[in-house]
């Protein structure tokens, strides 16, 4: 049985024993996560838990100090984000990678522009670009009347959906989403979560990074909690509830120890000691 196989099942993406050090600082310590085809792996943790470093390792921004990545069961090593993208791993960061003053359709095909004509007369195929944008966004019920409008005029949820739809449309097998709902209201977050579900239905493996348990639970198939650069706990859908996830995110034993200290100081009920 190979390193990337569990009971005969080969995950789409497997990070095995990932360690990452920056000088004396160990940002990741023996982290392992699995992403299945048509599955959503939610990566949760508080600030400083190691989520950003793991994202950068999966997407080719940085190379692990130790450990390996397996894609379709085969070891891979990315020297750059371009390598990861070519292998089918697309990452949508919080800044989205959109050009604010550029139109919706131009942003959608940015880097993958369809062209028409020959030689020096080749030019952007505007009709094909608009068709691709309309078709992909319609799959999650987002209809944009004016594709010529700058993305800066769109709502936060719509911009997120454009960035995510672009990544999925151009062949992503693994879609890594960095806190896609962090700055959104309830209705806007729902649009993004709907797209996550749509991507899962299409067989895309999704890594959903968030600190919002309420957003993770409805869409997640697997939940991995990071704490101080290590895996605090891993659960499958149905094995864990909101309160237990929050406890693990807060450090579990550390939180219990802190509460015990508060009790000793007479502060557990919020009242100052006498």
Instruction: Give the full name of the CATH homologous superfamily.
Output: P-loop containing nucleotide triphosphate hydrolases
Can you tell me the CATH architecture?
3-Layer(aba) Sandwich
**Overall pLDDT metric:** 84
Proportion of residues in extended strands: 15-25%
Structural class: alpha/beta
Number of strands: 12
Q: What's the overall geometry?
A: globular
Short description:
The chain is an alpha/beta fold and 274 residues long.
Give structural notes:
- The chain has a 6-stranded mixed β-sheet with strand order 6-9-10-3-11-12, sandwiched between helices. Strands 2-1-4-5 form a 4-stranded antiparallel β-sheet, with helices on one face. A two-stranded antiparallel ribbon has the order 7-8.
- The protein has one domain: 3-Layer(aba) Sandwich (Rossmann fold).
- The longest helix is centred in the C-terminal third of the chain and has 16 residues.
- The chain has 9 helices and 12 strands.
- The chain is α/β, with parallel strands linked by helices and 274 residues long.
- The model has no long low-confidence stretch (mean pLDDT 84).
- α4 packs across α5 and α5 runs parallel beside α6.
Can you tag this structure with a few keywords?
9 helices; alpha/beta; six-stranded mixed sheet; four-stranded antiparallel sheet; 274 residues; globular; Rossmann fold
Secondary-structure blueprint of this entry?
Elements: E1 13-22, E2 25-35, E3 40-44, H1 51-58, E4 66-71, E5 74-76, H2 81-86, E6 89-92, H3 104-108, E7 115-116, E8 123-124, H4 126-138, H5 156-169, E9 174-178, H6 186-201, E10 205-210, H7 213-219, E11 222-227, E12 230-236, H8 242-249, H9 253-265
Helix pairs in contact: 4-5, 5-6
């Amino acid at each position: 049985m190979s390193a990337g196989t569990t009971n005969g099942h080969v995950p789409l993406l497997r990070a095995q024993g990932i360690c990452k050090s920056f000088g004396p600082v160990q940002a990741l310590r023996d982290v392992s996560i699995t992403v299945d085809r048509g599955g959503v792996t939610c990566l949760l943790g508080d600030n400083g838990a190691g989520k950003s470093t793991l994202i950068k390792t999966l997407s080719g921004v940085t190379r692990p100090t130790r450990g390996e990545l397996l894609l379709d069961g085969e070891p891979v090593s990315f020297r750059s984000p371009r390598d990861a993208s070519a292998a089918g791993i697309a990452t949508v960061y919080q800044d989205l990678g959109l050009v604010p003053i550029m139109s919706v359709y131009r942003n959608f095909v940015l880097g993958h522009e369809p062209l028409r004509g020959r030689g020096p007369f080749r030019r952007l195929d505007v009709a094909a670009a608009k068709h691709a944008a309309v078709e992909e966004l319609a799959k999650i019920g987002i209809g944009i009347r004016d594709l010529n409008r700058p993305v800066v005029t769109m709502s936060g949820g719509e911009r997120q959906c454009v960035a995510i739809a672009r990544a999925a449309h151009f062949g992503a097998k693994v879609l890594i989403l960095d806190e896609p709902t962090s700055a959104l209201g309830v209705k806007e977050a729902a649009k993004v979560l709907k797209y996550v579900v749509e991507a899962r239905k299409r067989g895309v493996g999704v890594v959903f990074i968030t600190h919002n348990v309420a957003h993770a639970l409805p869409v997640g198939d697997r939940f991995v909690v990071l704490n101080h650069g290590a895996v605090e706990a891993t659960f499958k859908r149905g094995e864990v509830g909101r309160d237990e996830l929050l406890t693990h995110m807060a450090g579990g034993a550390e939180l219990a120890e802190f509460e015990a200290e508060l009790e000793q100081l007479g502060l557990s009920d919020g009242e100052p000691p006498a």
